[in-house]
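Question (not urgent): is this output format expected?
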Amino acid sequence: QVQLVESGGGLVQAGGSLRLSCVASGSIFSISNMGWYRQAPGKQRELVATITSGGTTNYADSVKGRFTISRGNTKNTVYLQMNSLKPEDTAVYYCNANLWISVGQINYWGPGTQVTVSS
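Got this back:
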């Protein structure tokens, strides 16, 4: 059974920082791309940042210079360091990963973690 579990969300004041973590576990052969997406109330889910297995990163324009995505040494963990947070960053943040398992490649989502930025 495959799982993606996020942690690190919470309530923070504008200008503050949070670090999100996501760990993939289960019968996984390998992981290629991992990323973070977010969904604010009444809005569509949007890309925040992605990172390949080789370390190539991609960011939404709205978070460039403030957020940093990275992979752990074991490659089954992805982090999102969020600095200079703004109220508009308030959303549920979802971890996403392309996983190779016994039946092939699947795209998997975590359950999400709430980030709330107060003004």
